[in-house]
Fold:
Amino acid sequence: MITRAVTLAAGLTGAAGLSQFPEFSQQYMQRLGGAVDELSRQVDRYGADAEAAGLPMATYLQRLGAEGPLAQTQAANMASDIARLGEMSAALTALQGAGPFMRAKLATHIGDRAVAERTMESFKPALPLTFEGITFAGVGFFAGWLALGIALWFLKTSWRTARAVLFPRRRRRTARQG
Structure:
């Protein structure tokens, strides 16, 4: 009886947690889009500076980095911004137009730690009244219930094995063996 109550609680916890995925992924995507827009503006400015110097971006960064320690740090930061823009743009492109189920399949694209942390800071759980939210809640319930059920089964089996090894049952002698 206690095991059933605990597994039910685990299932409900999984349902409550996973039902929030559609809204979290939507908010993540919106925040990612804003970050891509701002970083694009910055990288465009780097490109304009390189163009004004009559150099391709790679050459511009290389020459900038050769001007001294401060310029080398700035060139490295610019190169990092350019690379990050590429990664974030690719993730946003993969997520755009994807519904909640496809975003779950593409969850690896929800991997920018800074964006995810900022999304989590402002995220407020909501009651999942959409089809997607209810579906994710059902999957979460089943996953939580199953995970705890397997863990309890494993512990129960391990305990029985350990008890059998540590405390073997003594066989009763019958009158014939005596």
